Amino acid sequence: MYSKDGEDYFIVDAHVALWDGRPENQRNVHGKQFIDCFYDYHRNLSPEHAQWSYEEYLYQGGERLMKDLFEDGYVDHAIFQPAYLFEFYHRGFGQTDEASALAAAHPDRLTYNHYWDPRNGERGLAQLREDAERFGLKGVKLYTAEWYGDSRGWKLDDPWSYRYLEAAQELGIRNIHIHKGPTIRPLDRDAFDVADIDKAATDFTELNFVVEHCGLPRLEDFCWIATQEPNVHAGLAVAMPFIHTRPRYFAQIMGELLYWVGEDRIQFSSDYALWTPRWLVESFVDFRIPEDMTEYAAITTEQKKKILGLNAAKMYDIPVPAELRLPDADETETGPRGADDLVPA
């Protein structure tokens, strides 16, 4: 929990990972390209005091994750969102065994989400059923730009993808986190396009689609889809660190999301270990929309509390102390909102 100026904030970091980008795990040059691209994001968007060396960035391990999130980072609960990337790494990039074991040891603090790839066909469907039972899955993280043999991506509305979404619905895996946004070397930008969210969200209304990175740089496309699909949510991974290097860009992102999507469908994420949560939480609580950006409403303390933790806690049934809970906003379910509460000119 984070406290400042008499206000308490329940923190859920909705997108964290344990990865292994060390040379001995890199299958080919693309493994090095991928972790190097991550490190460039980390180095260029973090304040100096929060920057790591390249060597410590390659692998953190569970002990360091627990310290960075729960001792230093104010986090009350965190959710693993693994990326597999077997074409680039011998044992995969996201360390699923280590992460799931850590979550099993700390169920009050960690939730483990798994992954699937619809290109695995029937074999993958059988594996999904085993994984759902083994991990007690409530959610998954999908990566549509992942390479698989000659394939360099897939779409959420592909026929085989629908088979997996149908299985998820049947198995009670309600929360579908999907990377839609920034490309990462060597993956292809268009494989992260947000367009396929629209059809899947319409056809699977019992599922929540959390669009990680809120579609950046396709924020406008994402907002126009999310505003008409009440089961589409915005994940702030990668968007958050712009609060430091490009605060006006971050204000634009938040202003657009609050206007189109609303305060009940936005989730905070540090994207650990890309960044650490401590400075992001502190910066977000202090953040104000610049006074000259009069097209956007001011961000309220209640909105920050929902974004920093209460929205994700509600989605994952994470217990929240009674004194920290808030009711949902009285907003339209679809369409733009909040236009009557603009920052005074």
UniProtKB/TrEMBL annotation:
Q: Which Gene3D superfamilies match?
A: Metal-dependent hydrolases
- Which ranges carry the Amidohydrolase-related domain? 12-318
Where are the stretches annotated Disordered? Answer: 326-345
The family database entries (Pfam families) matched by this protein are listed as:
Amidohydro_2
Q: Which domain of life is it from?
A: Bacteria
- Kindly provide the name given to this protein in its UniProt entry: Amidohydrolase family protein
For this protein's source organism, the top of the classification is:
Bacteria, Bacillati, Actinomycetota, Actinomycetes, Micrococcales
